[in-house]
From TrEMBL:
It comes from the Bacteria. SMART domains: acidPPc. It holds the Pfam family PAP2. This is Membrane-associated phospholipid phosphatase. The chain crosses the membrane at residues 87-108, 142-163, 170-188, 208-228, 235-256, 262-281, 302-322, 334-358. Keywords: Membrane, Transmembrane, Transmembrane helix. InterPro entries: PAP2/HPO, PAP2/HPO_sf. The keyword Cytoplasm does not apply. Residues 172-277 form the Phosphatidic acid phosphatase type 2/haloperoxidase domain. Residues 1-84 are annotated as: Disordered.
Length: 365
């Protein structure tokens, strides 16, 4: 029997690939393994690009740079470290200092060198004897406070206050103000200025201008005004003017000084106060604040208003002593005495008003 190849059984054939058969049957080839689809990863989000903060616009030339008001640092240093005092207020401070020095010389030239001025000054000194017993009971305690110990304690308080705020140069300014004012008064009184003997009175040739007691009181008050924070300066200016005026008037009541001595002392302190403001640095600046100064304009206006009123009365009394104005029926000495007291008050109020305005303007960042 002839060996013939048996036909393959009728099995379903794969759609692709070659059929492999045997005599007993066939084994379909293994097809390609199905591809396992991997789950797609979620696309990574694009990185968020931070927009750069807009740069703060630079102010035009001549205007002060406005620092960041959102800073949480305190007033004592970081907020004023990169700032510089403005030029215009410092020039104003220099002008005020120069005018105050000129006023010291003008006071000496008018009331010490001039015969008419010496007469008015001496009448005021003689007029203090009227009612002195009652007034002296009030004046003596005021003058009793003034001493070397008072100078040391007052200077230490002002310096410590400045150092507590982290203001090293401000502390130096206070020390320069107090020491310079008192040293200037002593040098002017004993070495620079003289008093010609134009009147026939005891000790007519001994110069007493400026007043040392008044200089001490005014310099301590001015030092505190320079050292305290901005919001407290109006209060300190008014209180300092009251204390300085009371000290100056007390020297008149006790017949320790003539009115011109007291006026010159206050002007010396004003010159030094404005002078140290001229030398302001970043340590002397205040921290930036929102809004306008509260109380500064009110306090300065009150002081200036009082200065104008008392000054007008003082000028009228001086004119009466010279014979070309009104006078009191009690005599020229009392008129001169009252006019001298009013003149002292007027100069004191005006000086502390100017010092307040100068300090606030030079300390503004």
């Amino acid at each position: 029997m002839t060996d013939q190849t048996l036909p393959l059984p009728d099995h379903p054939q794969p759609a692709h690939g070659r059929v492999v058969g045997t005599a007993k049957g066939y084994t379909p080839p293994a097809g390609p393994a199905p591809k396992v689809r991997r789950p797609r990863r979620a696309p990574r989000p694009a990185p968020l690009l931070r927009e750069p903060l807009p740069a703060s616009p630079r102010p035009p030339s001549g205007e002060p740079h406005e620092p960041d008001r959102t800073s949480t640092s305190n007033e004592s240093g970081p907020r004023t470290a990169g700032l510089r005092p403005r030029l215009a207020p410092r020039i104003t401070a220099g002008i005020v200092a120069a005018l105050a020095l000129w006023a010291v010389w003008a006071t000496w030239d008018t009331f010490v060198v001039s015969p008419v001025g010496q007469r008015a000054d001496q009448l005021a000194l003689d007029g203090a004897a009227r009612g002195q017993g009652v007034l002296w009971e009030l004046a003596e305690p005021v003058l009793g406070v003034v001493s070397n110990t008072f100078i040391g304690l007052g200077l230490a308080a002002a310096v410590v206050l400045a150092l507590a705020r982290g203001r090293w140069w401000l502390a130096a300014q206070v020390a320069i103000l107090v020491a310079g004012s008192n040293l200037t008064t002593q040098v002017l009184k004993h070495a620079v200025l003289d008093r010609p003997a134009l009147l026939d009175v005891p000790r007519a040739d001994i110069n007493t201008l400026p007043s040392g007691h008044t200089t001490v009181a005014a310099s301590i008050a001015a030092g505190l005004l320079i050292a305290v924070p901005r919001r407290w300066r109006p209060v300190v200016a008014v209180a300092g003017a009251v204390y300085t005026g009371a000290t100056g008037v007390s020297t008149l009541v006790g017949q320790w000084h003539r009115p011109s001595d007291v006026v010159a002392a206050i002007l010396v302190v004003l010159a030094w106060g404005a002078g140290v403001c001229l030398l302001s640095s970043s340590s002397s600046l205040d921290a930036p604040q929102d809004g306008r100064d509260r109380g500064t304009s009110g306090a300065a206006g009150l002081l200036l208003l009082g200065a104008v009123g008392t000054g007008a009365l003082a000028v009228g009394a001086l004119g009466s002593v010279r014979g070309d104005g009104w006078g009191l029926p009690l005599g020229g000495d009392l008129t001169a005495y009252m006019g001298g007291m009013l003149g002292v008050v007027a100069v004191t109020l005006a000086s502390f008003a100017l010092l307040l305005l100068v300090r606030q303007s030079t300390a503004r960042p």
